[in-house]
Amino acid sequence: MTPDPESRDNTDSTGLDFEKPEPWVLGGHRRNLVRRVKGQPAREAKRKRDGNHIGRHHLHMSLAELQRMRLRVIQCRLVGSIMKLHQGGTPPERWEDDLKEYIQAVRDYEFMGQFGHQANDPFVISAERLTEDQIMQLAWKGAIQDPLERDAAYNDLKEAAARPWESAWNPIGGTRYDTKRQAWYSAFLRRLLISLFGGLFMLAPMWIMVLHNTRATCLATTTVFTVVFGVIVARFVERPGEVLAGTLAYAAVLVVFVGLAVELDGNSDPVAVDGRRS
């Protein structure tokens, strides 16, 4: 989950109460809490919604934004406590609890981030899911009674990118079977891409060095492929030692091809038609 930038357009920077910072913090997160989904559902998904009398105000809500707001509230309280300590004053009695709560909130946010790339992210409430669409539209109608005001408020919302629209009633986070199947499929794709990546980086330089058997070509091919391989490994592997070991192992394999190419190049002196060396 990528944090949305906070907007302070409608927040008075002088109105921050460090004891109760919630109103000030809310001003920076309000427009990110509720958004309208960009686009409209496809034919089958629209038919399902029309058949169940679900309205046309398709919303998107982020529980991650709530967590970011929670982090900001605790942070403001801690800043006020630290300032009082620095000035020699008496900080609020709850500063230790605030610190513990902040640490736990950061851990919770990291846990929420693990689901950010999943299609069934349980920390996103979005209209693409049929049940959630109905729940949010009922809440939207209950919060704004007048239809004209409701339409105006809806058009004023920020847009959220649309995902595939559901046309069936699915549980939160999907069923265990679907979740397990998607996890297996994602892992299979990763393994497949790794195998293709390894085969490409092994076979491509071999073909180049065999078809263009010169020392300069072999050295240039080895250098380029080793550098590119190292960059890609560094992108996906976190430990520096593993990056170094993988790059050196790959370079060692290519050096074997270079040695063979140099040996063949040294034994390939041209021979004249009468059998004498030119």
UniProtKB/TrEMBL annotation:
<feature type="compositionally biased region" description="Basic and acidic residues">
    <location>
        <begin position="1"/>
        <end position="22"/>
    </location>
</feature>
<feature type="transmembrane region" description="Helical">
    <location>
        <begin position="188"/>
        <end position="208"/>
    </location>
</feature>
<feature type="transmembrane region" description="Helical">
    <location>
        <begin position="243"/>
        <end position="262"/>
    </location>
</feature>
<keyword id="KW-0812">Transmembrane</keyword>
<protein>
    <recommendedName>
        <fullName>DUF6594 domain-containing protein</fullName>
    </recommendedName>
</protein>
<keyword id="KW-0472">Membrane</keyword>
<feature type="transmembrane region" description="Helical">
    <location>
        <begin position="214"/>
        <end position="236"/>
    </location>
</feature>
<dbReference type="Pfam" id="PF20237">
    <property type="entry name" value="DUF6594"/>
</dbReference>
<feature type="region of interest" description="Disordered">
    <location>
        <begin position="1"/>
        <end position="24"/>
    </location>
</feature>
<feature type="domain" description="DUF6594">
    <location>
        <begin position="172"/>
        <end position="255"/>
    </location>
</feature>
<dbReference type="InterPro" id="IPR046529">
    <property type="entry name" value="DUF6594"/>
</dbReference>
<keyword id="KW-1133">Transmembrane helix</keyword>
